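[recover] target loaded
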């Protein structure tokens, strides 16, 4: 039952982060559908690329890679770890936990930048992928 709660916390944190990010971006004038939080990779990629048509690659990489990949994944992993550690009786967080968290955040940021940049390059360099 603990694992079910931890997985639910992981997914819930990701979905809530993405809904909040979509709401914030809509306030800034970037029209993204709220259903984006529930889409899986191919459809999400298509919606994001369509919303950023005519904009700079840097903007797409920041939003798709950082706001919609690295931040929600890190938040979900943190919530998952908190639920598992809390139930196991390890509520204290020491320096090694903080350093490990920073390393995980950096890895998710690099992964987000890499995946969003490759999606952008694939879409704008391959005419057959735009259909």
């Amino acid at each position: 039952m603990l694992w079910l709660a931890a997985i639910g916390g992981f997914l819930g944190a990701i979905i809530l982060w993405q809904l909040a990010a979509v709401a914030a971006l809509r306030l800034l004038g970037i029209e993204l559908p709220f259903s984006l939080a529930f889409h899986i990779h191919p459809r999400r990629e298509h919606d994001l690329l369509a919303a950023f048509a005519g904009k700079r690659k840097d903007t797409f990489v920041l939003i798709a890679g950082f706001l919609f990949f690295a931040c929600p994944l890190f938040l979900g992993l943190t919530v998952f770890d908190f639920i598992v550690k809390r139930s196991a009786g390890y509520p204290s967080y020491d320096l090694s936990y903080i350093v490990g968290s920073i390393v995980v955040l950096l890895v998710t940021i690099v992964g987000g930048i890499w995946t969003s940049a490759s999606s952008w390059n694939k879409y704008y360099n391959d005419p057959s992928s735009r259909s």
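[recover] notes: The CA atoms of residues 72 and 109 lie 11 Å apart.
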